[in-house]
Amino acid sequence: MQSLRRRFVLSLSMIALLVSLICVAQGQTASGQNTALKIGYLMDSLKIERWQTDLDIFQKRASELGAQVLVETAEGDDDLQLRQSQELMDSGAKVLVLVPHDSDKAARIVNAAKARHVPVICYERLVRNSDVDFFVGTNAEVIGELQASTLARLAPKGNYVLIGGSPADANAEVLRDGQLRVLKALVDRGDIKIVSDGWAKDWDPAEAYAIMSKAIDLTKGDVTAVVASNDGTAGGAIQALRDHKLAGKVLVSGQDADLAAIIRILDGTQAMTVYKPLGLQAKLAAEAAVNLAAGTPVKNAVSIANGSKTVQAIFLSPVVVTRDNVKQTVIKDGFQNLETIQKSLPKEKWPN
To answer: In this predicted structure, what is the pLDDT of residue 9?
Structure first.
């Protein structure tokens, strides 16, 4: 009888211990869910190759830091992007990382976030005249200068075509300022003539194609160089040049070091692109988001003016990529894959 009682008490003890362990596990899970930081990531579009790269790296680093990333993509719809920002905050996002479609209209998103005490980081595109908390990206004016100076060094005289990015993107205007800063002296001397100056809505390659086609018709094919503001617009321009049997005869700039652009550079139809270390940039943005959500200062921050205030920022240095340094830049950093490039080109055009 005593043995039976002992077994009964032991069984009760084991049941109690099991229930206790289950409760603790459930409590830990619930606690983990409640304390996990949520970061809202508002994308303009994922149609351009580089933006998916940015997002993938950002999510990976945020996960390593114990944060969950909630992503919304507006595909160029400003009103939708505003609604998405509200939805992310309703879902518990404690900080917003914003790639705005329209750098002016996106001030509404910043205002809405500030009303709810949610800090905002602008990624790559700075929202103007707004109370932005932080910026992570590269100096667009420097990129514009690199594009124009590289082409001007290769062709200091001749007819130039300028193809800007989206008129709604403040970066497109800053890029143009940098390009013109370099070209102005050559234009004033009469060495260079700007025969066409257009803007590609939403950075659309089809818009760049149309601008380039008109410029070719206007000049009867007498074009020396095309200052295209990114690799998408460069691709559109090069397609127009190809259709007129001018591809490889006209210098074309770019930006973003997209795979297609790297292949064009090695193939001889694009002169250069500007590589931004997106891997490091996305990681630093994730770290900044976690710090801001926790109210912790971001180390090594500088500053940039957005019109109405001075914003803390992290700037990364852009790098010119030409046929001569593809292997030492984008391939070395793991941004582009050597085998993929080699499969797209004959052996004599592989990077050295």
So the answer is: 40
Question: Domains plus CATH for the chain?
Answer: 36-132+277-317 (3.40.50.2300), 140-276+322-349 (3.40.50.2300)
**266/348 Cα distance (integer angstroms):** 10
- What's the rounded Cα separation, in Å, for the pair 169 and 172? 5
Q: Give 64: exposed, middle or buried? Use CB within 10 Å, 0-12, 13-18, 19+.
A: exposed
Q: Are strands 120-123 and 95-98 parallel, antiparallel or unpaired?
A: parallel
Please state whether beta strands 67-73 and 192-199 pair in parallel, antiparallel, or not at all (unpaired). unpaired
Contacts of residue 187, defined as CB under 8 A and 6 or more positions apart, other chains included, come to 193, 194
Distance CA 26, CA 145 (A): 57
User: 212 phi and psi, to 5 degrees?
Assistant: -65, -40
Q: Shortest CA distance to 306 belongs to which of 82, 106, 64, 79?
A: 106
156-182 confidence digits (pLDDT tens): 999 999 999 999 888 899 999 999 999
End-to-end CA distance of the chain: 87
Mean pLDDT for the stretch of residues 119-134:
93
Are 162 and 227 contacting, i.e. CB atoms less than 8 angstroms apart?
yes
Using an 8 Å Cβ cutoff, are 165 and 144 in contact?
no
Look at residues 284, 292, 281, 288 and name the one whose alpha carbon lies nearest to residue 94: 292
- Nearest CA to 255 out of 176, 192, 342 is that of 176
Alpha carbons 192 and 186: distance in angstroms, whole number: 6
Left (φ > 0), alpha (ψ -120 to 50) or beta: where does 158 sit?
A: left
* Pairwise CA distance, residues 154 & 320, whole Å: 14
Query: Global pTM?
Result: 0.81
| Pairwise CA distance, residues 214 & 242, whole Å | 14
What is the CA angle 296-297-299, rounded to 5?
Answer: 130
Q: What is the mean pLDDT of the chain?
A: 89
SS3 211: helix
Angle between helices 205-219 and 231-243 (to 10 degrees): 40
pLDDT digits (tens, 9 = 90+) for 227-268: 999 999 999 999 999 999 999 999 999 999 999 999 999 999
